[in-house]
Each structure stands twice: as C-alpha cells, then as structure tokens.
Amino acid sequence: MEILRYLIFLYCILGIFVAGGLFYSKDVLGNKYIALYILCFTLDQFNFLYETSPILKLYPHFFLILYPICLLLGPLLWFHFSSIIKGHDVSIKNQLWHFIPFILFISFFLIPLYRLPGLERISFASERFLDYIMPLNYIRTTHVVLYGVIMLIVIMRKKLLQKHPKAIYLVVIAIIYFLTAIIQSYLTAFANSYTDFAVYYTLAATIVLFAGVILYTYPDTIKEFQIKYFKNSLKENDKKRIIEKLEKFKSNTPFFLNKKVNLTELSIQTGEQKHHLSQILSEQMNISFNDYVNATRIEYAEKLLLNPSYKNAKIIAIAFESGFNNNVTFNKAFVKFTGYTPHKYRKEKES
Length: 351
Prior knowledge:
It contains 19 helices and no strands. By secondary structure, it is mainly alpha-helical. It has helices at 2-23, 31-51, 55-58, 73-86, 100-114, 118-127, 129-157, 160-163, 167-190, 194-217, 221-229, 236-249, 253-257, 263-270, 274-284, 289-306, 315-321, 327-338, 342-350.
C-alpha cells in the first residue's frame, strides 16, 4: 500500500494548484468556496500522510493541528452549493453560524491537548484513543455526513432536477460528498489499519480533483450536458417573455444601483421564478447575474462620465454613484464591458 501514499502525496500537490486556479477563476460560480474546499481536503490528506509516517516523531508538535479541518469541508461545499442554486456568490457574513461546530470542537476538545508538548500529545492520544480520540472521530464524521444529507434534502424538496439549469452538477457533488462521507464514517468505526484509509483518500482525491479540473478547464461542460440531455423546464414562449422582461427592466436604473441587489429581489420585481431568471440569464443571455447587474451599472456610469454636471467628479465618486463598493471592482467591470478604463473613456469621449 506504500504506492498509495505516494499517489496521495502527488494528489496533494495537484490539489494545491487546482485550488489556486479555481480561486482566481471568474468562470466558476462560487469559485472561492470550491477552491477552499479542495484546499482543506488537500490539507486533510497531508495530515493523514504526516500522522501515519515516521515524520510524526521527528516533528511531533504538529500533531492534531490539522485534525479539525474536515469540519470546514461541509460548510465550504454548502456555500458553493448555495451559490449555484441562487445564481450568485452567497455572502458568508450571514452564515457564520456554520463555523460554530469548528470553533467549539477546537475550544473544548483540542485546546487542552494543544497545551501539551508534541510527544505528550501523541502519548495521550495513544493511551486515551478509545475513550477520547474515537468520540472526536465520530463527531467529525457525523458533521461531514450531516451536510451531505442536507444537500440531498434541498435537492429533493426544491425539485432542482426539474427546475435548475445546473441541477445535474448539484446532484453529482451532493451524492459524491455524501457517499465519501458514509465511507469515511464506516472506516472510522471498522477500519483495521491506516491502509484502509489510504484507499479511501486515494479514491476520494481522484474524484474531487477530477471534478476540480473539469470545473476549472471546462466551466460550461455541466450546463451544456444538461441542456442537451435533460428536458428544459421552460417553453419557448416563456423564455421569450422573460428575456423581454429582463431587457425592459434594465431601464429600472435605481434597482441596479442598490448595493444589496440580488436575484431574489429581481424575482420579486419581475414576478418571475428565481430559478427561471437564473436559467434565462445563463442559458439564453449567456451572462451571470453579477455581470447582468454590473453591465447595467456600467451603462449608467458611462452616462455620468459624459455628463457635464459630473465633469469634475472623481472616478471613485462615479463608482459609488453607479452602485459599486470600491474603485478596483468598478475599474475591472468598466474595462470588461467597454474595453477602456473609466479615466481613458472620459478622456477619449471628451476629445
């Protein structure tokens, strides 16, 4: 089984690169969350290699440092999952409670151990494995399984397979996550040695990294697959109606200038289902909700830059007036939709 350890190490290196590529990718919705998920999964693998090798005794002070990181896997995948459903990146600010188990786990169970020197920590874990470490293992695996169950319940209750344009992708990641969580739970209870976990990490890493590479290299593959092989939930007349509504609604400038604008509000304003709007934007108009909002804001910003009343206004003032939170985001969006920086655009038009 030693060859599996080398393979897992190779996956760890690859995982870091895939996570980095996804983190800065603009083509994958919820990219930062899935990137952090892959990074945390990679660190969990590194921890497995470290704790089952002679390196443990050479550097014992790292023992159990990465042990709680699997409690971040569920929340991070859930944020990515939610971003796909809603059609825009979800904000963590209102969902910080997802990290409470992670914080409590460290505070109550691990900090007392972290106070011990490395070798004493290893000795304690060995002596108290059944009555202290194993219950912690059960807490970790239960937490992982719980998020898998939640995602599957959401898919069934919201009937995403009939409604959402990326339902196949959501189902696939939910099922893969749930099955790997179940396998991890089984091994925690019945594994005979670390070699059983080596097989698990090898298979899980293969699946996770394959999905990550597909997402990074071919971000539209899942959407194209579903469009081709699964029945669309919208009729042609409905599509045409929604597209016309969205085109007309672009004239509602105050709506788009609101910094808290989201797909739910657009659904309320247009009287259309949120998942239908997301479907039309991505499939028919080939644009994400964020780009749809930003494109409208940039059109408004162009008018301000050419307005004599704003001739002496600073670029940052134009950015705020157009609904952007900062100058950097404004500049990037402006270049994306006009090909110019705001300053160059104003200068060229004036001349």
